[in-house]
Amino acid sequence: MTYSVRSGGLERHTTEEVLRIEPWGPHAVRVRSSAGAVDPAAPGALENPSPSPSPSPDAEPSVRDDGSAHLVNGRLVVEASADGRLRFCHAASGRELLADKIPYSHHAGPRVHTAGGRTEQHFEAYDGERLHGLGQHLHGRLDQKGCVIDLVQGNTVAAIPFLHSSRGYGLLWNNPATGRVELGADTTRWTADGGGRVDYWITAGDTPAQILDAYTLVTGRPPLLPEWASGFWQSKLRYRTQDELLAVARQYKERGLPLSVIVCDFFHWPKMGDWRFEHSEWPDPAAMVKELTDLGVKLAVSVWPTVEPDSDTYDELRTSGHLVGDADGGLLTFAWPSREAGEALTLPMAYYDATHPGARTALWQRLNDNYRSLGVSCFWLDACEPDLPRETADRAVYAAGPAAEAANLYPLLHTRAVADGLRAAGEDRPLSLVRSAWAGSQHHGALLWSGDIPTTFDSLARQIRAGLNVAMSGIPWWNTDIGGFHGGDPDDPAYRELLIRWFQYGTFSPVMRLHGDRQPNHPTFSTDITGGPNEVWSYGEQAYGILRDHLMLRERLRPYLTQLSEDAHHTGAPSMRPLFFDFPEDEQAWDVDDQFLLGPDVLVAPVYEAGARTRHVYLPVGAQWFDPATGHVLEGGTTREVDAPLERVPVFVRQGAYVAALLG
Asked: Which of 184, 490, 510, 579 is the most buried (most CB within 10 A)?
């Protein structure tokens, strides 16, 4: 029952578990526990890059005479007690960062393995600890201490099991099983519904930047953002024809408005799973792409993982075992709109299995033949959770295992299918707009958006906090449907105000994309669905002037965004981030959840209340802040009430930063 040193790490074998602790990159360790042998091939997020990064040069495990053990790796020290409990400390100060906890309810230890494959890991909880990350959740909180977070994908939810702590550690729950994490007052408990193992990675950092640097080093750095992606994206539900889409792109250019990307939404195909243009509505997509290219506009195309019977690919995927199975037998299906359904409107449809390498190859072959050959290289991977009711999703059987063990791999590997294809074709900056993500998705060019959200000021406020937690989950490229998705009347003055405020927020977001299902919208969800107008000239003259000015402002910011892309690519630093990311020594900065930094130099204070024309802004300690609206330079460490007329939101620039000239 004592520890032994094996392959540079520590191992402990008992009748209850096999425990392995090993350096995994500098300043970090990986901990694995199983009731039987530790499976080195178990799926997770620690596969990019391969092989794993080297530990610090001084990394050294040792076993003591009393049966305890000790492992040092850079900034992190692991103290392993003789009874199997682990304690993680900062190497320089000796301060405890995190420690195992044995629950009062049983004596099995901090790691619990059940016969059904369910596992738990219990840690101590700490007063005053602030917890961030965990992907995208619309609970409206930046600090998630006290929350229970389901580790289950869904529309508006991206479950990324990476936790950043104000105590100076980051922890990745390296298990794609469904489950949850409970961030309680007395215990932090991670639970996996299946898989039969505990597998986590922990790092120590003196700053949030160091923690995200370490995390993206072992899960994969994000590629550089393509130059075209930093501009304005125009989208709506939906442009129904080639002529309709081209008319919008032409009008942007005729008005002298910058436009980088225009999006072709769903049902541009004959059948789900054809993954090609429907000829009668899109008669010459090659000519369309050429005209858009001549206009300086990139086309992004929607791709769903749903496969309709009688589609081009159904039989091939079914016979090859490339469709998701159902635990109750046969294929997993769910009803979606179909052109062939007639009055029934919907047909049961299957799902391609993104966890199967052959299925990913088959998908990319279709995308390459039917889109990339025309010049399309940006894909909108919609509904990639995949989008299913929970009771249906729980029955899924993937090539990687049943849903309880492997469901969270789906969005990661779906995005990888496209990234691998693009990279093999010579494109080293893959980028896919995705509705779901998991740990490591950033390495495959995931551009996450927050899903189908309400069109309210409350919804806008929730996006601010959600985006900052996405940033602290290692995803540098994130956006929302500007204006929200569900509804919104372009002729309603109240909605116009919301749209303007959201557009201003979007101007300073990592990616700026206008999208939504505006009124008057189609009454039923069908293949004929389309929403009302959603272009910048659709909201009246006053709004148009404000939106136009912000389009021009975004265009001026693009060189700065290019610099932030370099930072993200080399260090994992997110472009949008909380104030504490750059000012960790400022205690008050940790409490600000309704402002953000765009890179190190631009502070943005969105307006998210109807009728508000001023708002309070906190300026962090450690810098002077230039106000482009007034020309004044203000000291940090102060909270001020700042004017916020409808024409702009408060923005401040770190004194001396070159980006100030771009905001003029």
From this structure: 510
Strand partners, 121: 111, 190
Verify whether residue 452 is a known catalytic residue.
yes
Does the predicted model carry a pTM greater than 0.90?
Answer: yes
Between CA 634 and CA 656 the distance in angstroms is 12
pLDDT digits (tens, 9 = 90+) for 153-175: 999 999 999 999 999 999 999 99
Q: Are 31 and 202 in contact (CB under 8 A)?
A: yes
Residue 484 has what DSSP assignment? -
Active-site position among 11, 17, 382, 601: 382
Q: Where are the beta strands (DSSP E) in 208-277?
A: 232-234, 261-264
d(CA 571, CA 359): 32
Of the residues 22, 193, 405, 452, which is catalytic? Answer: 452
Q: Which of 11, 385, 497, 582 is catalytic?
A: 385
Backbone phi and psi for residue 384, each to the nearest 5 degrees, phi listed first: -95, 25
Q: Residue 658: which residues within 8 A CB-CB, separation 6 or more?
A: none
- Catalytic annotation present for 312: no
50 has a pLDDT exceeding 80: no
pLDDT digits (tens, 9 = 90+) for 515-558: 999 999 876 777 788 999 999 999 999 999 999 999 999 999 99
* Known active-site residue 308: no
Nearest to 430 by CA among 513, 362, 364, 474: 364
Work out the end-to-end distance of the chain between its first and last CA atoms, rounded to an integer number of angstroms.
67
Quick one: tokens of 428? 């080293």
- Residues 88/78, Cβ–Cβ less than 8 Å: yes
The three-state secondary structure class of 571 is: helix
> Is the confidence at residue 256, as pLDDT, over 90?
yes
Structure tokens, 2: 């004592």
- Segment (H or E) for 315: helix 314-319
List pLDDT tens digits, range 222-246. Answer: 999 999 999 999 999 999 999 999 9
DSSP letters spanning 592-632: --S-EEETTTEEE----STT--EEEEEE-TTSEEE-TTT--
DSSP 8-state secondary structure symbol assigned to residue 638: E
Cis status, amide bond into 520, omega within 30 of 0: yes
As given in the structure block, the two tokens for residue 558 are 């693009």
